[in-house]
Every structure is written in C-alpha cells, then in structure tokens.
Amino acid sequence: MRVRPGIALLLVIFSLVVVLVGCSRDPNVRKQKYLQSGTEYYQKEKYREAAIQFLNAIQVDSRYAEAHYQLAQCYLRLGIGSAAYQELLRTVDLQPDHWKAQVDLGNLLLGAREYKQAQERAELVLQKDPNNVDAHILLANSLAALQNLPASLREMQAAIQLAPDRPRSYLNLGALQLGAKEAPAAEQSFRKALALDPKSKQAVLALGNSFQSRSRWQEAEQQFRRAIELDPKDPVAWKALAMLYVAQHKMEEAERLLLQARKDLKDNSEGYRMLGDFYFSFGNTDKALAEYASLYQEHPQDLRVKKNYIKLLIVKDRLDEATKLNDEILKANAREVDALVYRGQILNRQNRSSDAIPVLEAAIKVEPDNAPAHYHLGVASAAVGNSGRAESEWREAVRLRPTMTTAHLALSEVALRKRDLDLLASSTEQLINGEPSSPMGYVLRAIVHRVKGDIAGAEADLKKAIEVAPQNPVGYSQMGQWRLAQKRFPEAEKLFEQALERDPNFAEALEGLLGVYKAQNQPAKALARVQAQIVKAPQNSAFHMLLGLAFMDAKDSKNAEAALQKAVELNQNNMDAFLLLAQVQAAQGSIDRAVASYERSIQRNPRDARMYVMLGALEETRGNWQKAQELDQKALQVQPDYPLAANNLAYLMLEHGGNVDVALTYAQVARRGLPDASSTADTLAWAYYHKGAYGSAIDLLQDAIKRAPQNATYLYHLGMAYWKNNDQARARQYLSRALELNPKFQKAAEIQQVLAQLK
C-alpha cells in the first residue's frame, strides 16, 4: 500500500521524537550533557553554576568519577576546602588511577599539614606514572615540609627536567631554595621563571621577596613596584611593598602607600581593607577602629568589613555596638559561625560565661574545626571554674590552628600554674614552628630556658623575639624585664622606652619602667613618667591604674584613689584597678567605701574569685568572721581550687569551732596550690594541731618560720605544738618569742597561761 505524503511526514516526525525521547532518558547521555554544561560554565569562571551542573550529573550517576572531580575543582575555586576534599576522596575511591585527583588530594593534605599523607599520595602516583611532573612537585613540597630539604630539591629538579619550560616549576624550586637558605640559587630560579614568562606577577613578587630576604631593599622595591605596574588592581603586590617598608621601619611610608591603595582599589574588598588591617596588626587599635567605621559606612554590604568592625568593637569593649551589628548578621543567618563566635566573645567580656558556653557549642556543632570557637569556649569554661575542659578546648584550638597565639598563651598559663614544664615547652615549640615571625613563642621559650637555668638560651630567645618582630613591643619589653632582673637599669629603661615607641598604649612596658625607677628609689621620676604617657594615651585604663600605684608609692593616697577611680571609670572590667582602689580606701580608714568598691567589682565580674577573698579579709578585720567565711565559700564556688580562699576558709573554721576534718581538706587544697607559701604551711599545721598530729604540725611550722621568722602567729602555733608534744623547753622558747615580738598579740593571755604552767 502506498503511504500518502502527509502521513509519511508525520511518521518521520514521530520517529524523531521517539529517538529524542529515548536519548533524553539515556542516563549516559544526560550525565554527559550535564558535565559538558558544567565545563562550559567553569571555563567562564561561573563556578557556582558549574557546580550545580556537576551535581546534576552525579544525581544521574553517583559513581561518575569525572563529575566528582570537576565538582571538587569548583569547590576549590569557591574556597570550600572541606567539600573539595570529600569530592576528591570520592573520585579516587571510584577511580584510583585518576592521577590528577590523587595529586590534588595530596596538595590539600599538604595545606592541612598532613605532610606524611601528602608524601604518600605523591609516591603512589609516581609508582604508576614516574613522569608525572605535578606528582614530583607535590613530593618535593612534602619532603620540604618534613625538613628533608636535600631530597626535596632533588625531586624539584626532576620535575624541571621532565618539563623545563614551566615557569611555575622554577618558582617552586626558588621557594624551596630560599627555605634551604640558598638565596643566590633561588634568585636564579626566579629569574628563569621571569625569562619564561616576563609578565608573571608571581615571578616578579618572588624575586622581590628573595631580594628582601637579603636586605637588598632597593632591588626588592623595584620588583614590587613592577608587580603593581603589571596589575595595579592586585592587592598582593601593594601589600608586599607595604611590608617591605615595615621591614625597614618605614611605618609612615607603609601607611601612605596603603592610603593610596585604599583609593586605587576602592572596588576590591581585600584592597580597601589593607589599611585597617595594617593598623590592627601593629597594635594601633584606635586608628583601626576609625578606619573600619569609615569602611562600614562606605561598604555596608561587605560582610568581611562588618565582621572585622565587630571584632574591633569587641577589642575596644564597645560591646553594645558590637552586639547590635552582630545580631543583624545572626538575624540573616542564625548559623553564621563567625557571628556565633563573636556573640560568645561578647558574653565572656560581659562576665556571662555560662551563657557563652551554649552559643560557642552551637558554633562548633556547625563547624567542628573552628579554632577560635574552641579557644573562646576554653575561656568561658575557665571562667566558670571548669579548668579541665578549658585546657582541653585550648589544646584542640592549637591542634586545629598551630599558629593561634592566644590559645598557646592560655596553655602556657596552664603550664605555669601546674608547673608543667613539658607542656610549656611543647606550646612554645608549636608556636614557633607555626608562626616563626611571632615574638611570643621565643618569649615563652625564654621562660623555659630560665627555669632550667639556661641563661644563654633565655637571652638568645629574647633577642630573637626582637629580631623577628622589630615593630612589636613584646620583645623589647620582655628583654627589659630580663635586664631589670639583672639590675642593668639603663639598658632596661631603654628597652621599655623602645617598646612604648612602638605602641604608646603598651601597659606592660610602662609598668616595667616604673619597676626600674622603683628599684632605684626614684618615686618622683616614676610619677612624672606615667603622667607623660597618659598625655599620649589618655583613655588607657591600665595607665591610670599605674598612676595610682605611683601615687601609692609616693604615699599620696588621695591622688592614688582619684587615679584608680579614673581607671575603673574607663574600664569597668579592670579588676586589678578595683582591687587597688578598695585597698587604698581601706588603708585610709574608709572601710565602707572599700566594701562598696569590692561589691561593685563583684557585681561587675562575679566570676573573679579574688574579689570575694579580699572583701572577706576586710570583713574579718571588722570582726564579721561569719560574713568572711561566707565570702570565701563563694570564692571556692567560683574557683574550687583557689588556694587563698581555701586557706582563709580553713583558718576561719579552725579559729571559730568549725568542722576540723573539712578545715583540713581546705588547708590541703591551699597547700597544693601554694606549696611554697608560709601561710599555707601554717594553716595546714594548725589543722594537724587540732587533729592531734603534733609532729606533722611542727615540721610545717618550722618551714613557715624559716620563711617568716618575725611572724608572732607562726611562733605561737609552733610553741603550742611543742607544748602538746611534751617538749617544754622549745614550747617556752617559741611562745616567749611571740610575746616579745608582739606584746599585744591577740593570743597573749593564752600564752601567759601556758607559760605559767610551764614554769
């Protein structure tokens, strides 16, 4: 039968539709179309759109290795390293001979400081593909990180022999040569890279860095300026030139350059933020805050600007403003990790650490590897008395970020408190390895050397602290403390002044200067010097506190009180100033005002155990021992192992008919915390006395009297212990000595009765 033309056409169209529908249902065709579409987006640098298409391909075929690999590349470009790592792992699981994925995975491991695993990935590839240039480079970098520099350089040379025309290989070789302190060879490698690609910014910057490493300042500057000419909108070149000026102590030139960068890079967030970050890095928080306030007005939608501004507001204790801006971020995204961490910081500073803990735990739940969240959770845990968790969180913070100075410092304080020299040494070495340009690692290692009696090692580390960070005041101040301890006063004074030149707000250095003048009995000079520094930094609470101390040394209690009032007015969290203020008021006989100051400080910071103890001591002098005992108990609720509170509470219980066994427990806590203090030896001895363990009491009291031979109370206790131990001669000796030292001693009547029995 013959088919009519119209029907024939319909049959053709129908057959085409069937074919097309069949193709659209074919999973292989669909996943390849998604892959092709994703590749096109990727080539146009539209990484988010590309990622969506690669995800579509994976939905069609979850075992599509190439789609997983390309998705990993998108995540790398988008800066989502953890997701990229997972996709690369999936790629090599599905296709172990995907050598590009293996090398990329190795480079991520290298960046995560998993050097041995990175090396193993490189060697795995080279076993099957010995001419893989990228694998040789990965192996070279892994070996360098593992401190095997000769083998590292051999691998890099092998990579270059396989592909001698790759500029980036020479850049990598030059970086390794710099690490091996082969600066001339590194320079030649960078020049070779430039010869292969004369417009390579990376090569120009690398050459400039090699010149800078050898203090060839002018040549380095030429290269950095050339890099700016090659790409005027690249903030990296601007920053390199600014840091070159800093290395030469040309801070004003660095500032002028970054002011220009702020104008020229007004559309680049990294570029216009450099000036504010420069101020913050070198301790000028006032200028940094003003700069970020201005940037926030100009770029209110720049989240990084907003976050940095919040961070500075927190540093400056402008917590209400910080809270308002931070709440805006959390309102838009309740799981925004940085904002959760900032909220935790704010709550810690508001002495609401128990409220900070769940906030920081929420941040860690979203992002378990967030080092700042772990650090601030440690701070909050310490504030509520959970010292074990605090140490654990700080250890996790430094594991995640070995360069985190604040966490290392916190662990160092733990180590010093526990007298754990191994922990202190470990913290300092990790800090130095992770952040060799930070002075703090060398300063802390100097303490380790000092405790071990290695004077030369301590001195060398303090000099290194100054060498690696010549614009940081810490090294100068710590060396000043060292010279002060050695009584080399002119050198100490000069070092403290150098520290204050670098940071006019650096309280540690001004305190050191006052120590120099006090050691030389120059109270007038100390007073004049702190007043001069306050002119330069009038809003510094710590400086006003030091002024109060200087007035106290000059026996001027009226002006001391005024200065300390100003200190607490400027910073309600300056607990040391509150403490001194109350002491000055008590010394003046203004007990009610002193009590009010302590109560105000407790209200401001209820987690500071010191304030309860000091107020308790004041109440005891007023005869209110029940109130004193209550305050010591509150101090121990805040900090269960606080030795001063435990010591005072134990003594009060022993003196006023409390439970002797409980008092003994508190006395033992105090002695563990302050094993070298005569007061804790006396209290524990007095507890043993009440328990009838007179021999143990005598041993401790003899130790206390060696340290404080003129203390009538210790002599009285020792005399009573000898009396109960049937040693009448020694009992008479020590009891009589107590009366000679203080005829109005409160236990004089009891002593007279015992002496009468002895006669």
Description:
By secondary structure, the protein is mostly helical. Among the domains are: 522-607, Serine Threonine Protein Phosphatase 5, Tetratricopeptide repeat (Alpha Horseshoe), CATH 1.25.40.10; 676-759, Tetratricopeptide repeat domain (Serine Threonine Protein Phosphatase 5, Tetratricopeptide repeat). The protein is 80% helix and 0% strand. Helix 6 runs antiparallel to helix 7. The longest helix is centred in the N-terminal third of the chain and has 21 residues, at 5-25. The protein starts with a helix and ends with a helix.
The CATH topology name of the domain at 522-607 reads Serine Threonine Protein Phosphatase 5, Tetratricopeptide repeat
The major β-sheet equals: none
Report the total helices. Answer: 44
The helix/strand class is: mainly alpha
- Beta percentage is under 5%
Q: How many beta-strand elements?
A: 0
CATH classification class of the domain at 522-607:
Mainly Alpha
pLDDT averaged residue by residue: 88
The poorly predicted ranges are 1-5, 7-23
CATH superfamily of the domain at 522-607: Tetratricopeptide repeat domain
Backbone CA Rg: 35 Å
Fraction of residues in helices?
A: over 70%
Distance between the termini: 149 Å
CATH architecture of the domain at 522-607: Alpha Horseshoe
Shape: elongated
